[in-house]
């Protein structure tokens, strides 16, 4: 089995006519027929049912085409990604993430300030095997078979209005509070897993993706919400609310900077160092 055979096969499926496929590929029709026959012999199945000059794709042929066509699409994307990697010479850095984070604003600002020649791009994707090229990922857990650097470790607090002055909230008391939750996101998943592990089932009164709306509603005493101590502080005014440790030891979340193994360009190394230093400085502030 070789790429030429697979190329001939996919073109025959698309045209369902060997003569048309041969014309489009600029080869002789017998070459197409021989290639398909050799491919079927190697696989041990019939890919087509032949009714005179008419071709009908078999169930095996349909499955094989789906897999082969997907592979060709991935090869095409790989070719495009190779060109994208070459664009590093043009100072482009791409960061992939599952969901947006307030840290992006700060990242964009500090990278542009330090390296104004760099073109920073973002990819938002929930697909683990997204084939698009990226230089870094922002992830809540280390990615297997990649290099992972701890970018940020921060405590998650319970936010209430200023009227509540207690420093710590016992876990069982959260059940008694109306709560605002983030829409579906890694942070929302993280807090929900924590609460489930503690057998806490809070009274969720609102779900939203607007952090400022959450903080304003909490400040007015409408409900409480969970707030990470560092990353939200970049873009959200937390001075109007009170933050309380949850339980005796609190609970924390982590954000990792993940990237593929292998040689790194000087630009990639410089950006990684800049982001790591910036996030470490947040903890010291």
TrEMBL record:
InterPro entries: LysR_HTH_N (IPR000847), LysR_subst-bd (IPR005119), WH-like_DNA-bd_sf (IPR036388), WH_DNA-bd_sf (IPR036390). Pfam families: HTH_1, LysR_substrate. Residues 1-58 form the HTH lysR-type domain. The keyword Signal does not apply. The keyword Secreted does not apply. Keywords: DNA-binding, Transcription, Transcription regulation. Belongs to the LysR transcriptional regulatory family. This is LysR family transcriptional regulator. It comes from Limosilactobacillus vaginalis.
